[in-house]
Amino acid sequence: MVNSKPDELRETESKRVKVYILEENEWKDTGTGFCVGKVNGADNDKALNGKHSDFHRDLAAYLVVNDEGIPDKTLLLSKLEGNIEYQRQEETLIVWKDLSGQDIALSFEESTGCDALCEFIIQIQKTTETNISLVAVRSNDDGLGSVHEIITGPVNLPSNEVDQDEKVLMDSLKILNENTAFEYLRCETMEFVLKNSYIATLIQVFDKAESKHALRKLLLLSNIVKTLTLYNHRDILEQMVDDDHIMGIVGILEYDTEFPLSKANHREYLLHSGPHFKEVVPLKSEDMKSIIKKTYRLQFLKDVVLVRFLDDHSFNLISEVILDLQNCIIDFIQTEPFLSRLMALFAEKNRIENKRDGIRMLHQCVLITKYLEHSEKSKFFKALVRAGLFRIFDYAFGVETDSGIRILATDMVICIIEHDILLINTVQNELLNQHGVLDQEQHLPKRTSDTSQSALSSDVSLLSILSKILLTDKNLGLKEQVVQALNTLLHPEGCMGIDSDYNDTGNMDIVMNLSDGRGNGITNEALMDNVSFQMTEYFNNFYSQVAPLLFAPLINDSFGNTDDDILLIYLVKLVSFIATEHNRRISREFILENDILVNISKLIAPRHMLQLRLTVVRCLKGIVCLNDEYYHRYLISENLYEPIFGLLRENIHEDNLANSCLLDFFRTVSSQCLQAQELQSTDKKNFIILNKHLVKKYRDDLIAIDYVPFTQEMIRIYDEVEGTNTLTKTETQITFNSEGKRTFAELSEAKITSKENNGEETLTFKRAMEKLTTAQPPKSIKKDFLSNES
Amino acid sequence: MKLDETITLLRQGKHVSEETVFQLCLQAQELLMNEANVTHVDTPVTICGDIHGQLHDLLTLFDKSGGVEQNKYVFLGDFVDRGFYSLESFLLLLCYKLRYPDRITMIRGNHETRQITKVYGFYDEIVRKYGNSNVWRYCCEVFDYLSLGAIINDRIFCVHGGLSPDVMTVNQIRAIDRKQEVPHEGAMCDLLWSDPDEVNTWSLSPRGAGFLFGKNEVDQFLHTNDFELIARAHQLVMEGYKEMFDGGLVTVWSAPNYCYRCGNVAAVLRIEDTLDRNYMIFEAVPAQDDVGNAIIPTKKPQMDYFL
After folding, report:
1. What is the chain B residue with the closest CA to A618?
2. Which of A375, A549, B125, B262 could form a disulfide with B258 if both were Cys (CB 3.0 to 4.6 A apart)?
3. Model confidence at B293, in pLDDT bands (50, 70, 90)?
4. In whole angstroms, what is the distance from residue A491 CA to residue B271 CA?
5. Which residues sit opposite A97 in a β-bridge?
6. Using CA atoms, how far apart are residues A741 and A639, in angstroms rounded to an integer?
7. Is residue B136 one of the residues assigned to a domain?
8. Which residues of A292-322 are buried (b: 16+ CB within 10 A; e: fewer)?
9. What is the distance between the alpha carbons of residues A298 and A306, in angstroms, rounded to a whole number?
10. Which residues of A touch B299 (CB under 8 A)?
11. What residue ranges carry the coiled-coil annotation (chain A) (predicted)?
12. Chain A window 660-679: which residues touch B at a Cβ cutoff of 8 Å?
């Protein structure tokens, strides 16, 4: 008999249990026994002979408890029937009210026993008694109140008929809303939606309703679709945006209860006016096409159609799905044939519009990497460079005339170098090592002369290209971008490449390729050593090859007309940047030898735009704050504070930005002097000397600034110092030195001890060096040391 | 550049060319450079709190408070981020300022920085509307020129966030070179980030920047500078405004139904010649096409897509 039943309806094992019954509001213990879930055919013969599909209907299920002392004595026989709600309370209790109204509780000895019987109830609900339910009740963490969670039970589902009136739709909406409340109901509903093509049904209903202008139906449908998005189910989202459903879905969502009198035009937008999917290079994969379209449509849903509606949860889910699809796309693009087909677009004979589309497409690829993981990003960018990204830059910066396209190309450069400055050079070098120089030249016959030269060394070709754009291109947006790219490329810490992924698989990949290509093992340490060498080379190259070109307008004193003020602002900011961030000796030598400070201080003259004048003041302030003796002497001996006081006199009685900018300078000087006095330290003697210079020359101007305390403070400090005999002597000497005319050549001849030199490194440079030195030395060097010792 | 034309475009939430934005930003810089870190304003004037890119609500604000043709306004910052029309809201205020220089005072909020706008929506909005981030850079440059505070009739101090332990007198603010990204600490940071709270003294702010300050600090600041009120924004108030510390400080919030879902009302505070305070409450308007509040936000992607 038992064997003839389906597996899931087999009797349960017996579990030890206490049976309680509620009488007059008290739970009465009726004894202890063993509980089983039993299924009996209502009519055994019929069950055996009847048609299989009727089989379940004829079964009756019971919870049976037999006394543990007297197995024949039945303590409980309760049928699972009607709409009984079983509650599982905590781990070991099952409580219910049977159809006669009797409250019954089973208290299991072990939770596994309770599990078994609950499982039985679930099986019965799913097969024969679909209207019973099982609810788990747990007390809250705080001990107050309780949480109900439906484990199994009847699920109300929306109608799947093609003909639905308003009332049916209203019911569906209500049901879908209610079903979001419990995990179980959500899952059942989701299964229903996916298995029964419910979304397709809705679209059919929608088409009819729209043709009949049944506005209320349309609004209900819109709310139903919105509610479905709140189920946060990936498959449903993806179904909504596939080719079969997208138009229907955005059509439905054109109607909105919040704006019942108007209608959006999503369908028109997707079909006609909006952007279209364009295959620049044949994808040769229908799956990929569909993924690309889905990604776009999901973004459209997220950013436009549902933007006012999504809660954080659904917003995040859509974002996650998009991210996942984008990952697929990026993976696909890296597969070899596609990238090389794309790069082939840039062959000379190709139409210019194709090349432009190619750049547009690549730009979009690079943009979507924004949210990728670091190593994934490295992998993709490396693949791009290997496939010949430089050919594209050659085209964009050498041939292309449309600034829109050039802007996109620069944007790509920025994305890649901000991710990892060394990446482009590293991969280029790797290619050179693999193919040999001649081979490389053949691969890239279209290189402009200046890039082909420098591409071979520690590479500043990108810097040259960008500098040229900054100086010559008329497009302001492009200039903005180029300055950002230059800042990134010239940042010493970034150039060390330490912050990037030196140990990730991507770079190991390079190491492997290198060793394969050359047939000798190159260790990570050697690579590191190479990086340090490269960086020194890189900056030397910058100062010898690029900086004279980049800063030419500041060197030749050929500022041109005032239209160039915007360009000059960029350049002065870059001066400020290299002075404060680069190795002090190299940058200072460059700045002073080329008279850059003398020239830029001329830009404080009134004929220039105020933004530029103040940018120069800030640049000089920044250099003063470096507390660098050479700069300090130079600024005083070249009389470069004069234009600053000219600007002050224009604004001395104004309360404006120029005035504040200058006050900030005086506040810095006075507070540095106060510190010098308090600490009795010679570290800040530059500021004492500066203060002396300023008060001596500009006492009247400083007195006129009577609305802040620190200008008066500057005068007081000066008078005090001058009045103090002990200090006067040394001070005079220093002053003599500093105010006596000395050329820069003399300055640089001054012996600089290695200790001073260290002190002059910028913070970022020092940090970078520290990281380098903590890396293990190349093994070859270790070996040498050992052999020397022995 | 035709200012009135641009204003019309902006009021409808329509696209403004990159070149126009650049020129607008450059002119705005020139105007803002002549302003003090703390500018002086006369009554009658209307004080407005956070806007957060809710262009249509900004238009309502002007409608219901008399309009810029007739009235003076002080905006307490946070023009951008969160809403769909950060660019239009900010540019509209710049245009009004260029058009009626003495009627609009704009104070910098903690969202008017490169770092914050990259995270909270303005940057993404620009990339979506223009396909690149240049317009964002132009606007950020203008942010650096915005004032840090304002004083009405020498009696009311306006600021975005609140007080700073480094600022006892308003004059101390004068020596800040404000043309910079908002620093992570110091007076300039605190003015934009601090919040009032029931604390006895300067306390750590849960925001990670600025301080919490209490009645003591407010009383002392008001007394030292001979002020009667600190007007600030920076915190959502469901009722639109909230006075604290026996009326010594008020928070004004001007973005109704913040983020299009908070359900709050908004307020502006009108200061009369007598220094009487009149609060005007307004709600979010239902959306309409062609008045800067089309059902579809202009976040639409502009370009063909290959991916």
Report:
1. B177
2. B262
3. very low
4. 50
5. A103
6. 11
7. yes
8. bbbbbbbbbbbbbbbbbbbeeebeebbeebb
9. 10
10. 303-304, 307
11. none
12. 660-661, 663-664, 666-667
Report ipTM for this prediction.
0.92
How far, CA to CA in Å, does A357 sit from each of A184, A281, A293, A458, B301? Answer: 49, 9, 18, 32, 17
Residue A432: predicted pLDDT? 66
Please, are residues A104 and A19 in contact by the beta-carbon 8 Å criterion?
A: yes
> Treating both helix axes as pointing N-terminal to C-terminal, what angle do A374-387 and A336-344 enclose, rounded to 10 degrees?
50
Provide the shortest C-alpha distance from residue A277 to chain B (in Å). 5
Q: Which residue matches tokens 């394969």?
A: A516
Q: Is the pLDDT of residue B242 over 70?
A: yes
Angle, CA A558 vertex, CA A555 and CA A564 arms, to 5° = 105
Residue closest to A37 by CA, chosen among A98, A124, A105: A124
A 506-525: CB under 8 A from B? none
Residues found in chain A:
790
Q: Tell me the Cα Rg of chain B.
A: 18
Q: Quick one: pLDDT at residue A517?
A: 36
CB contact at 8 A, B87 and B298: no
CB contact under 8 A, B296 and A656: no
Q: Considering the domain boundaries, does residue B8 fall inside one?
A: no
Q: How much is the pLDDT for B38?
A: 97
pLDDT < 70 positions in chain A: 1-10, 41-58, 143, 336, 428-429, 431-459, 493-532, 557-563, 724-790
Domain that holds residue B145: 36-159+224-282
Bridge pairing between strands B104-106 and B149-152 = unpaired
The CATH number assigned to the domain holding B127 equals 3.60.21.10
> Which has the closest alpha carbon to A60: A132, A160, A141, A140?
A132
Confirm if A330 and A369 have CB atoms less than 8 A apart: yes
In this structure, is residue B273 part of a structural domain?
Answer: yes
Q: Establish if B24 belongs to a structural domain.
A: no
Contacts of B33 in chain A (CB under 8 A): 610-611, 614, 656-658
